[in-house]
Automatic annotation (TrEMBL):
Major localization class: cytoplasm
Organism: Gulosibacter bifidus
EC number(s) recorded for this UniProt protein: 6.1.1.7
Co-factor remark: Binds 1 zinc ion per subunit.
TM spans (from-to): none
Protein name per UniProt: Alanine--tRNA ligase
Length: 478
């Protein structure tokens, strides 16, 4: 089943259950506290908190998402993309746990010739928060999943909070697909996340969150006046399970780029080694970059632009590690566009602009890469012959500042050379540079200029790169 078909079925199923179909919002979130849209619920946050009355009691969407915090997992796990599509169904003070569980189970297990996904209940496992007897009992009542396959887990995995005192919080329930003994040990989702793939997360927003206890836990202030449902199902995960392939990078919207990259490099995909990971990273990042540029992001040195730059440069670097030293974007981007255009016609309509931005970034980086590599090699040799285990932080800074090497690239290269990077030195040089830039900006604009938009953006860029948003602080211990 093609990814676009999974999307169509998902929206149709929930539309038939009186949900208003809401188109995907941009990847560039309107919420200034969030750098990118990281989940289907992001555009609905105002309705969740009750700040704004919801225009509909039920909604459904398939939301484009970017999660930079998963970047290190890409290509190594079967299930983490930096870009992916999240189906969601939402209730704003309307239905609650019972219906949310019933809908999810029904959609997953309804036969494919009747509009569902046709999963066999024997392949499904469920987790609930350990004290959530209600959810546990609804699963028993509404599904054919036996009690042995409903695991009660702690707050670290099964409790969600918006992260702020006063915001909503509540237990969640996750649905997993068991890929079988070939993929890992028996024992359910609590034991093995390679064998048991999380496919759907149901969040029951039930309580008002209180103050932090200071140890990662927080108080609960009581029941919310309006209880909400927020769910997220990963389309790429469903796609790889239903398409009979091993991971999301081999699904219909991603695999063509992987194949083209393999062709360009003359490497054969599927040997299970480092090359496979690199090809998957290339395929993932090309698609993410395509979708980010489509939504208006341009490569830059901070904030969203820096994330995009980092993705593009990781593609180039991985292609070099695969043995290709020349420009590859003119080969890879059209393939990604062709794979995505049915679902997102704008990638084709706007491809002139999108490709111009991507190709120019590749040209720029290829020019400096060779010089930067030489400087890196010299510094790495010096560190090793001096008996040090870390690369000088000042060199890392120079590579960043003059040659545009994202720090994670330098760290990756250092790791391959058996070295660390002196991060303290690097970080302090970065801070000094930021301070200098701020002082310059102040001087240029004068004291009365309005800095609000720019400074909000900067603040995001500086923190959101490694840190993550409050939304992702999903599972704190209560
Ligand atoms: P995991 O534990 O596998 O990292 P998660 O708990 O972080 O997933 P949620 O935040 O619950 O994921 O998001 C809801 C759903 O979105 C997940 O159940 C999964 O199907 C999908 N999803 C989450 N992250 C990714 C990703 N990086 N790539 C593809 N799909 C994803
Ligand atoms: Mg995750
Ligand atoms: Mg999870
Ligand atoms: Mg989850």
């Amino acid at each position: 089943m093609l990814t676009a078909e999974i999307k169509r079925r998902f929206l149709k199923f929930f539309e038939d259950q009186q949900h208003t179909v809401v188109p995907s919002a941009s990847l560039v979130s309107e919420d200034p506290t969030v750098m990118f849209t990281i989940a289907g619920m992001v555009p609905f946050i105002p309705y969740m908190t009750g700040m704004v009355p919801a225009p509909y009691p039920r909604a459904t969407s398939v939301q484009k998402c970017i999660r930079t915090n998963d970047i290190e997992e890409v290509g190594k796990t079967p299930r983490h993309g930096t870009f992916f599509q999240m189906g969601g169904n939402f209730s704003f003070g309307d239905y609650f746990k019972k219906e949310a569980i019933g809908f999810a189970y029904t959609f997953l297990t309804t036969p494919q010739d009747q509009g569902g996904l046709g999963f066999n209940p024997d392949d499904l496992w469920v987790t609930v928060y350990k004290d959530d007897d209600e959810a546990f009992n609804y699963w028993l009542e509404l599904s054919d999943i036996p009690a042995e396959r409903i695991q009660r887990l702690g707050a670290d995995t099964n409790y969600w909070s918006a992260g702020k005192p006063g915001g909503p919080a509540g237990p969640d329930s996750e649905i997993f697909f068991d890929r079988g003994p070939a993929y890992g040990i028996d024992g359910g989702p609590a034991t093995d996340d390679d064998r048991y793939v999380e496919i759907w997360n149901l969040v029951f927003m039930q309580y008002e969150r209180g103050a932090d206890n200071g140890d990662g836990t927080f108080e609960l202030l009581g029941e919310l006046p309006q209880k909400n449902i927020d769910t997220g199902i990963g389309l790429e995960r469903i796609a790889f399970l239903l398409q009979g392939v091993d991971n999301m990078y081999e699904t219909d919207q991603v695999r063509p780029v992987l194949d083209r990259a393999a062709e360009l490099s003359g490497r054969v995909y599927g040997n299970g080694g480092e090359d496979d990971v690199r090809l998957r990273v290339v395929a993932d990042h090309v698609r993410s970059a395509l979708m980010l540029i489509t939504d208006g992001v341009q490569p830059g040195n901070e904030g969203r632009g820096y994330i995009l730059r980092r993705l593009l440069r990781r593609v180039i670097r991985n292609m070099r590690l695969l043995g290709v030293e020349t420009a590859t974007f003119p080969e890879l981007f059209p393939v990604s566009m062709a794979a995505m255009k049915d679902a997102y016609p704008e990638v084709e309509r706007d491809f002139d602009r999108i490709s111009r931005i991507a190709y120019a970034e590749e040209q720029t980086f290829l020019r400096t890469l060779a010089q930067g590599n030489a400087i890196f090699a010299e510094a790495a040799d010096a560190a090793k012959s001096g008996g040090l285990n870390a690369l000088d932080g000042a060199v890392a800074f120079k590579l960043h500042d003059t040659f545009g090497f994202p720090i994670d690239l330098t760290m990756e290269m250092a790791a391959e050379a058996g070295l660390n990077v002196n991060r303290d030195k690097f970080d302090s040089l970065m801070r000094e540079q930021v301070e200098r830039a701020k002082a310059d900006a102040r001087a240029r604009r004068g004291a009365l200029a309005d800095l609000s938009v720019y400074s909000a953006f900067r603040a995001m860029g500086e923190t959101a790169f490694v840190g993550y948003t409050e939304l992702e602080a999903q599972s704190r211990v209560i």
